């Protein structure tokens, strides 16, 4: 099933879920994994999407679908449409999203509602579709900007999680420059480290250390975009042990080094 209009499209399919050819076009793509793991290849690395997670592809990001389990659910948005939503939210940085699978309740709720509506109306009146699609894509563009980590944000989106995880998240935000260990995080949560690591990943879709590193990276973007500070200074100031670890994570998240990212989105000398 494909529904499209001037601003984007919705695709839901249950066949041809194995390896497909390389793709690259001007649209933002939001890929959901409703039932199980999906695997996608980019020119930088392979990315897996677990059940209930999503992945945002930026325009002209070359990628190949390796496998989607049971169903592929994909949304495309044109850059001009997302920019219009960004302007309405007073976001003045060009949105470039992190190439990491993630989960957020608001995005999951949107996907579940839209998917259920499509299934119920698959054989219904096609005149419903344009109105439904316009409103759905408008809602999604706002949700993506609010809850998708990327160049337009200076903190990771808030997720309401269970009390032990929320307690640790708050502590990490307050002292993200500190050298946290898993044992210290678990003690803050009041759990053993195995229980804590499992609960954290289940709630936020990332391991505790991966979440902390991503939080540091997102927080560093303001200095990267709006100051002349060196990349080394920024890396150390925002909790990274070396500029090489900062560069490596940036390359993993965005497919670019911090210097390349700064040239595209930020300060111009």
Task: Walk me through this protein's architecture.
It is a single chain. The protein is α+β, with helices and mostly antiparallel strands and 269 residues long. 46% of the residues lie in helices and 15% in strands. It has ten helices and eight strands. The protein has helices at residues 79-88, 105-120, 128-147, 163-174, 182-189, 193-204, 208-226, 231-237, 243-254, 258-265; strands at 2-5, 8-13, 28-32, 38-42, 46-49, 54-57, 63-68, 72-77. The strands form two sheets. A five-stranded antiparallel sheet has the order 1-2-8-3-6. The chain has a three-stranded antiparallel sheet with strand order 5-4-7, with no helix packed on it. α2 runs antiparallel to α3, α5 packs across α6 (193-204) and α7 crosses α8 (231-237). It is globular. The termini are far apart.
What strand order characterises the main sheet?
Answer: 1-2-8-3-6
Largest sheet: 5 strands, antiparallel
List low-confidence stretches.
Answer: none
The total count of strands amounts to 8
First CA to last CA: what distance? Answer: 48 Å
Q: Would you tell me the structural class of the helices and strands?
A: alpha+beta
Count of helical regions: 10
Mean pLDDT: 88
User: Helical content, roughly?
Assistant: 40-55%
Backbone CA Rg: 19 Å
* Helix and strand pattern: EEEEEEEEHHHHHHHHHH
How much strand? 5-15%
Q: What is the 3D form?
A: globular
Break the fold down into its secondary structure elements and pairings.
Elements: E1 2-5, E2 8-13, E3 28-32, E4 38-42, E5 46-49, E6 54-57, E7 63-68, E8 72-77, H1 79-88, H2 105-120, H3 128-147, H4 163-174, H5 182-189, H6 193-204, H7 208-226, H8 231-237, H9 243-254, H10 258-265
Antiparallel strand pairs: 1-2, 2-8, 3-6, 3-8, 4-5, 4-7
